[in-house]
Amino acid sequence: MNPLDLLLEPLQLGFMQRGLVAAILVGVVCAVMGAFVVLRGLAFIGDAVSHAAFPGLVIAFLLGIPLYIGGAVAAVATALAIGWVARKGRLRFDTAVGVLFAGMFALGIALFSSIDDYVADLFSYLLGNVLGITTGDIVQVAVLGAIVLAIVFVFRKEFLYASFDPAGAAASGLPVQWLDYLLLALIGVTIVVSIQTVGIILVVAMLVTPAATAELLVDRFWDLVRVAIVVAVFAAVVGLYLSYYLNIASGASIVLVETLCFAVALLVSPNAGSLSRRLGRQRS
Amino acid sequence: MTIASETHATADGPAAVVLHGVTVEYGQRVALDAIDLTIPTGSLVAVIGPNGAGKSTLLKTIADLIEPTAGTLEILGGPPGREAKRLAYVPQAELVDWGFPVTVGDIAMMGRVPLIGIARSPSEEDRRAVRDALETVGMAEHERRQIGALSGGQRRRVFLARALAAQPDLYLLDEPVTGVDATTEEDLMRVLEAEVGRGRTVVASTHDLAAAAHHFHEVILMNGRVVASGPASLLMDRELLRETYGGHVVVLPEGELTIIDDAHHHDDAPAGERHFHEGRR
After folding, report:
1. Which DSSP symbol is given to A117?
2. What is the pLDDT of residues B25-81, one digit of tens each?
3. pLDDT at residue A115, rounded to an integer
4. How distant is the Cα of A47 from the closest Cα of chain B, in angstroms?
């Protein structure tokens, strides 16, 4: 088989075509939101929100309504509750997040364990199955993703200022608290949109890893977003091909490629890479 | 208390800042205790006091970042927050995430963000304001550098440029010259002096008594409450300093005062204010 056939053969299959489109869409939205997640130190919140979406999915499944809606309601509600706890709480913030996240996930498992059949569908939400995605799913991902990106575009300057210096931004009249809640809600929507691709357990990697990789390589915010998108798209494509040929789970495969990109960036990074520092020393 | 009411008559409009009985409590701790204060338009005033005196809290309350437990404020002729776009607040350097991927130019442009408005891109006027501000503080040639690569003095210059770019009527600066070299201190104070000459008002906290006495026109001596306020010559009053700094003032044999004060210790950080902005530092 020649190399071109290796690339083209999987594309004959409808599920691979759909999977590729979905993985790229999700990768792009996650990369953009991930830039904020990484710079605001929200990785743990991302993990919490994705797990908190689980009971929403199960309840939606039990009620027979679209799973996306249940997941989105639970994820956004949890994201906003976290923002609220962060402002009002007397507890350490990460403690509050940990309690909320474990409690919601436990609720999901309890409800899940009460279901006798059709568990396969829900399992795909835990571990992700981008190859099982339908055209209708892709339309949903595309529409929700476009809405998220449009909102980020509208508030791009305000989000950046409020992320970098919330006090300075608030003093000059920006509604920083409102922007924070909006950002958390957008992260919640992004997570739900991504869950079918990589699953609840790995979705945080889709958010964090491309942006973290980019942070090692560039030092301007919008460059960081661009590089994160490139990493995410690369990982989506390469990850899906690896998943096809090695017969491994698609979500895990995409995340592993992203992790590999991160490791390479760590080595070559002008700022943090031990390899580049060593080379620099030899040159000077 | 009114600062230097003879030299800065309020003929040129209402006072920039008026506080009546402003009290701020963090749980059990009283950070500001019934502050009465009038800062006329065009003042160049230093807020002086030991750690925990409430200097940062005072600035944040004026900036509408903290809601007072009691009392009323009038800022630039309106209730707190109403004239937010006419005000520039610069936080302490140690509260800023210097690893954040933004350049010198990006930060100066942030000063324009509230003026540009949602969804819009910077206009030629915005870019000119940023360029002018960076030139004024001597950072124009560093416009594309990441802020982590700057020296402490350069970082303070960039943050002042952000404030200048907003073209505000009131500057609220938390420790703008702390830990900078003498040249930077001179440069930054000359810029602020020029702004005051244009009728703007500058309120800055500082640990540095010498800087306050040398560069500022007026001072507010604080220790939870306002001990005294008036012309900078108040700093010559040993009794007032003792009252402000308590036991931390040492009178040297030559009659010079030394204040034992740890500039790195952090005051005014209420436990309740901890939120997810502070996850990365």
Report:
1. S
2. 988 899 999 999 999 999 999 999 998 899 999 999 999 999 999 999 999 999 999
3. 79
4. 15
- Work out the widest C-alpha separation in chain B, in whole angstroms: 63
- The CATH number for A110's domain is 1.10.3470.10
Contact at CB, B279 and A155, closer than 8 angstroms: no
Q: Check A155 against B277: CB less than 8 A apart.
A: no
Q: Coil, strand, or helix at residue B33?
A: strand
Contact across the interface for A219 and B103, Cβ inside 8 Å: yes
Closest chain A residue to the Cα of B110, Cα to Cα: A161
Q: How far apart are CA B1 and CA B35, in angstroms?
A: 9
Nearest-Cα distance to chain A for B62, in Å, is: 9
pLDDT greater than 50 at residue A125 = yes
Residue at A37 is within a domain: yes
* Overall number of domains in chain A: 1
Full domain range(s) for residue A152: 3-269
Q: What is the pLDDT of residues B158-216, one digit of tens each?
A: 999 999 999 999 999 999 998 899 999 999 999 999 999 999 999 999 988 888 999 99
Search chain B and give the residue with CA nearest A150.
Answer: B119
ipTM of the complex: 0.86
E runs forming strands in B98-224: 170-174, 201-206, 218-223
Chain A contacts of B279, Cβ < 8 Å?
A: 40-42, 93
Looking at the DSSP bridge assignments, the partners of residue A9 are: none
Q: Supply angle C-alpha B97, B169, B232, rounded to 5.
A: 85
- The SS3 of residue B226 is strand
Please state, in angstroms and rounded to a whole number, the distance separating the CA atoms of residues B85 and B19.
20
> Best of A47, A172, A213, A226 to disrupt the B interface by mutation (most B CBs within 10 Å)?
A172
Give the whole-angstrom CA distance, residue A106 versus residue A187. Answer: 22
- Beta bridge partners of residue B270, listed in sequence order: none
The predicted model gives B106-113 an average pLDDT of 97
Residue with tokens 């568990």: A119
Position B158 scores a pLDDT of 97
A233 is a domain residue: yes
**Which domains can be identified in chain B, with CATH numbers?**
10-279 (3.40.50.300)
Whether the CB-CB separation of B33 and B224 falls below 8 Å is answered with yes
Collapsing DSSP to helix, strand or coil, B210 comes out as: helix
B71 close to B34: Cβ distance less than 8 angstroms:
yes
Contacts of B117 in chain A (CB under 8 A): none
Locus of tokens 């009178």: B251
Interval A238-274: pLDDT, tens:
999 999 999 998 889 999 999 999 999 998 886 654 4
Residue A115 lies in a domain: yes
What's the pTM value of the predicted model, to 2 decimals? Answer: 0.88
